[in-house]
């Protein structure tokens, strides 16, 4: 099927794939979104007033801030991280050219396979996010410079989180190794990391503007974009490594050829 009808058919296929994967991710992450919804719309005015007072004097209420952060981090580690890991596995299949795989089977197979590492990664990242957020609040009125440094570090942690999901979907290694490599990629490729976070920010902004996109496309689009950026970085690293190995092999081969020629000259003499 070609022409306009073929193009429309392909477009409808991708819409169904993206929407299906996003709905699975949203359903499996539902407790996290419910908590967020309750905080945004179920909080009383009195509680909001108390929160406003706490934000004006964050140093005095660090423990009060830590409790909800810990709760949200725990729920996120159990539900959001495994679901996002599964979504990135689906995005990986699409990015490397396996477009016709079953979204449902790929999602839940990855969910089951990577659950433990996604959970552990969620715990690690939740702890990092909590520490960074507490430091931003603590130094906000004490030192603008230190607070800004922690804010920049927060952005780096966010980028490395997306790289972590990509590594988990693409490679087999230990959890701490994945976290370490996610940070190394983020710091080693700052321009690509900047482009990625800008792209994700645009997607989130559009999704908030048109809220129905959150349920059908936001997560899928972010996963595809993130893995596409990661795959470009990974392919470049692999290519450079192969070139380095080839460069090391060539002198050895030339040395072997030179030794062989010297031996032949001696035999002739």
UniProtKB/TrEMBL annotation:
Entry annotated with the keyword Transmembrane helix: yes
Domain of life: Bacteria
Keyword RNA-binding attributed: no
Parts of the chain that traverse the membrane: 21-41, 61-83, 118-139, 145-171, 183-206, 212-231
Disordered: annotated span: 245-269
Pfam families in alphabetical order: DUF624
UniProt keyword list: Membrane, Transmembrane, Transmembrane helix
Protein name: YesL family protein
UniProt source species: Marinicrinis sediminis
């Amino acid at each position: 099927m070609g022409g306009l009808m073929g193009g429309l058919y392909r477009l409808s296929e991708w819409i169904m794939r993206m929407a299906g994967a996003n709905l699975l991710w949203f359903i499996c992450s539902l407790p996290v979104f419910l908590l967020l919804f309750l905080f945004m719309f179920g909080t009383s005015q009195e509680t909001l007033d108390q929160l406003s007072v706490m934000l004006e004097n964050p140093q005095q209420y660090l423990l009060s801030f830590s409790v909800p952060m810990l709760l949200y981090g725990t729920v996120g580690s159990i539900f959001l991280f495994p679901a996002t890991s599964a979504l990135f596995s689906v995005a990986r299949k699409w990015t490397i050219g396996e477009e016709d795989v079953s979204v449902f089977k790929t999602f839940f197979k990855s969910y089951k396979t990577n659950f433990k590492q996604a959970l552990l990664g969620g715990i690690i990242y939740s702890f990092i996010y909590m520490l960074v957020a507490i430091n931003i609040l603590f130094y906000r009125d004490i030192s603008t410079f230190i607070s800004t440094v922690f804010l920049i570090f927060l952005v780096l942690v966010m980028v490395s989180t997306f790289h972590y999901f990509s590594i988990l979907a693409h490679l087999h290694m230990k959890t701490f190794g994945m976290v370490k490599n996610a940070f190394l990629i983020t710091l080693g490729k700052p321009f690509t990391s900047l482009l990625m976070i800008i792209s994700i920010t645009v997607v989130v902004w559009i999704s908030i503007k048109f809220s129905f996109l959150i349920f059908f496309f936001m997560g899928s689009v972010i996963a595809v974009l993130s893995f596409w950026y990661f795959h470009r970085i990974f392919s470049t690293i692999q290519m450079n490594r192969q070139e380095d190995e080839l460069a090391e092999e060539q002198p050895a081969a030339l040395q072997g050829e030179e030794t062989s020629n010297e031996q032949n000259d001696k035999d002739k003499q």
